[in-house]
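Dear colleagues,

As part of the handover before I leave the project, I'm documenting each prediction I ran so the next person doesn't have to rerun anything. This entry is a single chain, and its sequence is reproduced below.
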Amino acid sequence: MKQPGKRPEPEAAMPKTKKTLGWGSVATIAVLAVVVGFVAGSRFGNVLSFLHFGGQNSNLPTQLDLSSVQDVYQKLRDQFDGNLDAQKLIDGAKKGLVQASGDPYTVYFTDQEATQFLSDLDGKFSGIGAELDKKDNNLVVVSTLDDSPAQKAGLQANDIIAKVNDQDATSWSIDQAVAQIRGDKGTTVKLAVVRNQQLKEFSIVRDDIINPSVKYEVTSDNIGYMRISRFAETDTVTLAQQAANQFKQKGVKGVVLDLRGDGGGYLGAAQEIAGLWLKDQVVVQEKRGDTVVDTLKSGGNPLLSGIPTVVLIDGGSASASEIVAGALHDHNAAKLVGEKSFGKGSVQQIEQVGSGGQLKVTIAKWYTPNGKNINKEGIMPDVIVKPTDADIAAAKDVQKDKAFDLVKNQ
């Protein structure tokens, strides 16, 4: 699937044809953002028809009776001792309506928040460079961006945010946490996190972050190493194709694809990346309820097909990362090494709201080629490798070492 159209300008409305998988729900602590990704394609015509003309909620009234909301507003307006902002009240009502869905990945954005969301997904923002999500009612670090202040300070995937600037954050929403943790370059935020039942404290200086989504190299023993930190619209496919071409030209003995800490991104990018190994094969299937609404296949030019490949995953690998890992694994194109992935098995789409703002709404669940939905379960690697505290302290990457060993011996 190709992604049609251009990325919107900063003040432009986001097209309906954007879907997300990863970052659509995992908050990038810096500015706004969150998980796991967008997808775009002409196929959305069919999906939108399904959404607009029937579905799981077709029994609900076409118009809600909001007279009680107006009654609350009138009492608030008449009795509140303080200054109210009409636009903030409207935005708050929209956010509350959407939040009542009970789905952490369905979110109302103001236009400014939506613009920031896209900037974060493309890797350009100010903050500490971490991704947050809600898991078991806890605010959890999903991953840290490469070379970010969060990573340099020592934050890790699955750290539970307990305090922000000495404030109890245990009951906060993702948006509340993001609002407190983000900030201008050069300023400091204090975080207290729970890791392995121990409380750890960090003081992190915020910075501007511009981070390419793909890094690659060919090692001295002729192994291709490709690290994807997110599935962005702007550079992921281009850089990954450059990497694949270089690997092919140098005749690498094998490939290590590192998706650790990759919180997801655009589904179209994930589909293209899987297509570097798979030829005309199912990458992922989308369902609403029991109804299949789309089946995405790889293209016809798999540059890395047949080359021994190991994919690295961990608890920070979410959504689009899990789609790629699941597809390569189900088609026996790669072995998985590391730790169980995050477990985000839903797809989001952005809808422009006529009165202003944008709605990121869960429209489907996705399934691996073998028919598995990994939501809240994750993907278990073939070879489990968990670094010890001593490994981390010594900066020893035992997962990566194991992946290279396996590739060399395939």
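The longest helix spans residues 86-99. Confidence is low (pLDDT under 50) at residues 1-17, 22-54.

All the best with the project,
I.
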